[in-house]
Design brief:
The complex is a heterotrimer. Chain A is mainly α. Chain A has 13 helices and no strands. In chain A, helix 4 packs across helix 7. In chain A, about 55% of the residues are buried. The relative contact order of chain B is 0.15. Chain B has one domain: MetI-like fold, CATH 1.10.3720.10. By secondary structure, chain B is an all-alpha fold. Chain B has 11 helices and no strands. By secondary structure, chain C is of the alpha+beta class. The chains are: A mainly alpha, B mainly alpha, C alpha+beta.
Chain lengths: ~300, ~300, ~550
């Protein structure tokens, strides 16, 4: 088991290195620089700006210098927000996004698992169709659509919940979490239904039933474990997707999260911010995928034994 | 026994292929049939739009501006006075095309990749999945922005760019499926029979992993269409004067309080399409599930 | 199990209902009571260093935290005493002497001196600083040479501290608008010890503007800054004119999403919005006692024409394109009458200057010109690309105009949108045929618009170059003896410019804000200038609808 984890961690380092390098050079290819502004910049001023941000060095020199800083954990100053380091911006924005993503994942899991399991127990009946249709609303309505509707209904007409902000007024986390989580609820519902259906037709379930166990124990004690494997395998990509897909929701609800910062950085050609967020997110995603894989492997009895034997 | 009776018995025992079984099962699922019907209807309308659209989609009527549904304009008009029904019809062509083509690209690459990685295991698996991790960790936004910006904005590139991002999760799912399947007895039997790897993957692994793959594919088409909406929202997807449901929805969402029809109707079109795809996908999943047929 | 789900839903709904009861008072009500203004500010500020930032959101906050030699009266736009109590201009217009208010203090209690200005302008003009607004101080003698590195010694530049409270300024040529420049944030004085404590003076990213470090001299002091959430300032007790300041504090919100901003205003989370969504304009106009404030704004929205590229190298084509547009119609329909059609680069009424109207909407004449140029009824038209930066409003205008050109001249225009940085790059490199542009004045004077099109104008971007035009703007106008004479010269120059049509003017900007009725002392003005000292909140004006 530990060899498995260890080897995966070791493999992660070149992954990150490649990510950094590719991103670094990709960004520089895109036209438009960080100091273009509507009022033309005097050449001397532009030169001074570029010198301060090391843009006057060759690409390779900038790259090595950046790697050097990175080894100290220094992600550099933001180009767009002078006086703020990238570390600071990420530290300000990430906790918000993470919290949002977590609540959204919770919403998605609750709705998704309940709907999926219910549906799988009596396929092709009303108990199948209704929960699945409700869960499906999440992927059939983009957050661009769902968000504004929720705002109108609950925020403006009923005036029950705040329409923007995060942590400023009570309840302002509800609508964004629902909007963001709704889409993933559907995915999770699907996966848990499919997983459960496969598991429920397995022999060991028949055995459990033949032993005389009540149905709900059959489901919860035996079937759920195996049935949730696809869901668990999906958690990694789901959380990663939530983290990077939160931009739209963050914009609609005016949430000061990393997603918003990040996309703005792309448009502003804020090189250091783009790179820094990429490194940060990439590290997170690699870790998450690893955890997710471990969990999935552990839940699959056959693979688990295989790993134990290593 | 008389000859007709022998024939009856023989016919009763005539084997049916996997796919014919599946089709019969699918037909019994009413929601899936409904979904299929609606989908085919939309595809048909999209195909013949240039001939049946009520107005020219660029035709403006500035003084009219955004007007609610009326006899002249069944679904209302946008802020330029352009007929919304026409916009939705033309937009549907683009949206459906993006959805299907990009998904097909993703499917092809993802399934093959994941199957090979999951089956081979060991170092091959490690390298292939590391590659997936690398691309996955590439900031998607930057990737797409840069691609669209550096190489110009055209539809083909949009398909490829979206497909190139979507295949990754497909590969992961396929791989974990294949990993579990690989342990099964029938695979061991095939190996001991001396079947080549490619044949095993093609004939045994992929068909048996099809359940979740089809499920995920039917989830991918909607997700692709939504991705297109997101990109259009940022001005990177479909460019005016072309239009798509995604573009129409993002315009409609801006002014939804004053002109709700601009949001509701394109939203309805997209939602109906996605529901249809999902019902159909569900039905297919049940129909193709070999194990489930044992009941 | 089914009932379990229902029960769960009931609990959720009950919780939501309970939340509704605990909503509390709105920002507006609370703000009116405590004297706090809740201000929708557009984008998250890039920073607070006046020698680094370039945007409007930043300048608004800086205007609250700092004060310049002069301050603008928001009603009349005339310059009023700020840090400078009074000033004398010499007869030849080349020397200005500012007498500083001896009561003017920094927020840490230090007294302000003339030396503060000398040092600060050294920093502002220093090439190493990379100040994109350094050109505001170019009227100073030798300032441009110092900023471009031609001279190294700052004592050659025309600013000197005669004594602790007297600042003497020497100009290159008489500059009537120089006093106005003194209320622009790029000319503000900064506190030297604070800046030097946190790094090199010309470093762009030192933490001197952090809440715990910053020292400023304005009516308000920085209290709190939560990135991307809010920035709060509170009334300063060291400000020389503090008795006149009625607000106790201001909270600036980064409201980038304009639909969101309007909703925040509607549920009374904001007193003031930066702008208003187009489709809401008729709705607000129709209200009685409408909070919608629409006023002329010193700026022009136009399309740049790259006159080096065919088919735009033929002046008849350019004129035809311009005359074929029905600006009135665009304004009345798509823009909901919120702006003013423009036929020249300088906004009408700029400090009493009225630009020439060299052409009008005339489809017949346009068609004739196009035919003369070789494209009768659009035949043989090679196509033309319009580049604009991604934005809902630019798109709306572009789509409408694209159709107008098609209907009037039977020519095809393709639209290309690029996101902001790419678009700026394209314009800078002249990599476009027709590009959307907007120019907002930094000070109220026609010169601010006309010097755009000098041969070496950094923001020219059209390829237009007329030595006679340059002579009028750069030599003759500054020498004029009276405003009337000066404006006559400008009029002549602008006529020359518009006859060549290197741009297609579309409309003159207006400022559009939603302002809660309880806000007093915030009159609309041409610069959309907000003077926070004049603002106060009237509790009795609470009910909006």
């Amino acid at each position: 088991m530990w060899r498995f984890i260890g080897s995966r961690l070791l493999q992660a380092i070149p992954v990150l290195l490649v990510v950094i390098t590719v991103t670094f050079f990709l960004i520089r290819v895109a036209p438009g620089g960080p100091f273009d502004s509507e009022k033309a910049v005097v050449p001397e001023v532009k030169a001074a700006l570029e010198a301060q941000y090391r843009l006057n060095l060759t690409l390779f020199q900038q790259y090595t210098a950046y790697l050097g800083d990175l080894s100290h954990g220094d992600l550099g100053p933001s180009f767009k927000y002078p006086g703020r380091s990238v570390n600071e911006l990420i530290a300000a924005g990430f906790p918000v996004t993470a919290e949002l993503a977590l609540y959204a994942l919770l919403v998605a899991l609750v709705i998704g698992v309940i709907a999926g399991v219910l549906a799988s127990l009596k396929p092709n009946t009303a108990q199948d169709y209704i929960p699945m249709s409700v869960a499906m609303i999440g992927i059939c309505m983009p957050s661009l659509l769902l968000g504004p509707i929720l705002i109108l209904v609950f925020g403006v007409y009923l005036d029950w919940l705040p329409v923007s902000g995060w942590g400023d007024s009570p309840g302002d986390k509800v609508l964004p979490a629902i909007t963001l989580g709704a889409a993933y609820a559907a995915y999770i519902a699907r996966l848990s239904r499919a997983g459960m259906l496969e598991v429920m037709s397995q022999d060991y379930i028949r055995t459990a039933r033949a032993k005389g166990l009540p149905e709900w124990q059959v489901v919860s004690r035996h079937a759920l474990r195996g049935g949730m494997i696809p869901v668990v395998a999906f958690l990694g990509p789901a959380f990663a997707g939530l983290l990077s897909g939160s931009f739209v929701v963050e914009t609609i609800f005016q949430i000061p999260g990393l997603g918003r910062f990040y996309v703005q950085a792309a448009f502003n050609r804020d090189y250091t911010m783009i790179l820094g967020s990429t490194v940060f997110l990439a590290t997170l995603i690699v870790v998450f995928n690893l955890l997710s894989d471990i969990l999935a492997a552990w839940m699959n009895p056959r693979l688990r034994n295989q790993l134990r034997a290593q | 026994m008389t000859t007709p009776e022998i024939n009856d018995v023989a016919q009763a025992e005539q084997g049916t292929s996997l796919w014919r079984d599946a089709w019969l099962r699918l037909r019994r699922n009413r929601l899936a049939v409904l979904g299929l019907t609606v989908l085919l209807l939309f595809i048909f309308i999209a195909a013949v739009t240039p001939w049946i659209a009520p107005y020219d989609y660029a035709q403006q009527d500035l003084e009219l501006g955004a007007a609610p549904p009326s006899a002249a304009h069944w679904l209302g008009t946008d802020i330029f006075g352009r007929d919304l029904l026409t916009q939705i019809m033309f937009g549907g062509r683009i949206s459906l095309a993006v959805g299907f083509i990009a998904t097909a690209v993703a499917l092809l690459i993802g399934v093959t990749w994941g199957a090979i990685a999951g089956y081979m295991g060991g170092r091959v698996d490690a390298v292939m999945m590391r590659l997936v991790d690398i691309i996955y960790a590439l900031p998607f936004m930057i990737f797409i922005v840069l691609l669209m910006v550096v190489f110009g904005r055209n539809m083909l590139l949009l398909f490829l760019a979206i497909g190139a991002v979507e295949w990754l999760t497909m590969a992961r799912i396929m791989r974990s499926q294949v990993q579990s399947l690989r342990q099964q007895e029938f695979v061991e039997a095939a190996i001991s029979l001396g079947l080549p790897t490619a044949a095993i993957i093609r004939r045994h692994l992929i068909p048996n992993a099809l359940g979740p793959i089809i499920v995920y594919t039917t989830l991918t088409i909607p997700s692709v269409m939504l991705l297109e909406a997101f990109l259009s929202f940022l001005g990177l997807g479909v460019q005016p004067p072309e239009t798509s449901w995604g573009l129409l929805i993002s315009y409609g969402a801006e002014s939804m309080e004053e002109y709700p029809w601009l949001l509701v109707f394109p939203g309805l079109a997209l939602t109906l399409t996605l529901f249809s795809l999902n019902f159909l996908g569900d039905g297919l999943r049940d129909a193709l599930d070999v194990r489930g047929a044992k009941d | 199990m089914r009932f379990g789900v229902l029960k769960f839903l009931c609990i959720v709904l009950t919780c939501l209902a309970l939340l509704a009861c605990g909503r509390g008072e709105s920002n507006v009500v609370q703000g009116n009571r405590d004297g706090i203004l809740h201000f929708g500010n557009g984008a998250e500020p890039q920073g607070l260093d006046p020698h680094v930032v370039t945007g409007i959101p930043e300048s608004l906050i800086i205007n609250a935290l700092f004060e310049g030699l002069t301050v603008k009266n928001p009603h009349t736009l005339e310059s009023e005493p700020g840090v400078a109590q009074r000033w004398d201009i010499s007869d030849d217009g080349l020397t200005i002497t500012f007498h500083l208010n001896p009561q003017a203090k920094w927020s840490n209690g230090d007294l302000m001196t003339a030396e503060d200005y000398v040092w600060s302008w050294w920093r502002a003009l220093n090439p190493a600083m990379g100040n994109q607004y350094g050109y505001m101080l170019y009227p100073l003698k030798n300032a441009e040479d110092f900023a471009t590195g031609k001279i190294q010694d700052f004592s050659d530049v025309g600013v000197k501290a005669v004594d602790e409270h007297t600042l003497q300024v020497k100009l290159n040529t008489p500059t009537p608008y120089f006093i106005q420049l003194m209320d622009h944030h790029s000319t503000f004085a900064l506190h030297r010890p604070t800046i030097e404590k946190h790094g090199k003076a010309t470093d762009r990213f030192t933490p001197w503007t952090r809440v715990e470090n910053i020292v400023s001299n304005g009516a308000f002091r920085l209290k709190d800054w939560q990135l991307n959430r809010r920035l709060s300032v509170e009334k300063s007790d060291t400000y020389w004119d503090r008795d006149r300041v009625k607000l106790n504090g201001i909270v600036f919100y980064p409201t980038e999403n304009i639909a969101s901003e309007e909703r925040m205003f509607r549920v009374e989370q904001l007193h003031y919005t930066q702008t208003i969504p187009l489709e809401k304009i008729p709705v607000y106009r129709a209200m009685e006692d409408s909070p919608y404030a629409n006023a002329p704004y010193l700026g022009t929205y136009y399309y740049l024409l790259n006159i080096n590229e065919p088919p735009l190298d033929d002046v008849r084509v350019r004129q035809a394109l311009s005359m074929a547009l029905d600006r009135e119609r665009l304004n009345n329909t798509v823009l909901h009458k919120s702006n003013v059609p423009a036929y020249s680069i300088t906004p009408p009424g700029t400090l009493g200057y009225w630009p020439p109207k060299v052409f009008d909407h005339n489809i017949e004449a346009a068609r004739k010109l196009l035919a003369e140029a070789g494209y009768p009824d659009g035949k043989g038209w090679p196509g033309l690309e319009l580049t604009y930066n991604t934005s809902e409003s630019h798109l709306k205008i572009a789509v409408a105009l694209q159709q107008m050109w098609k209907d009037a001249l039977n020519i095809d225009i393709t639209l290309t949108n690029q996101e902001w940085k790419v678009y700026l790059d394209s314009v800078d490199q002249m990599d476009f045929q027709m590009a959307r542009r907007g120019w907002i004045g930094d000070y109220v004077d026609p010169n601010n618009f006309l010097d755009l099109f000098l041969c070496d104008g950094g923001n020219n971007s059209t390829g237009f170059c007329d030595p006679d035009y340059d002579k009028l703007i750069q030599h003759q106008a500054p020498q004029a003896k009276s405003r009337a004479e000066r404006y006559a010269i400008f009029h002549q120059a602008e006529t020359r410019l518009m006859e060549q049509m290197p741009i297609i003017p579309i409309y003159t900007y207006t400022s559009n804000h939603l302002i809660h009725p309880s806000v007093q002392g915030l009159p609309p003005n041409l610069m959309d200038y907000v003077n926070f000292r004049y603002i106060w909140l009237d509790k009795n004006q609470e009910v909006v609808e």
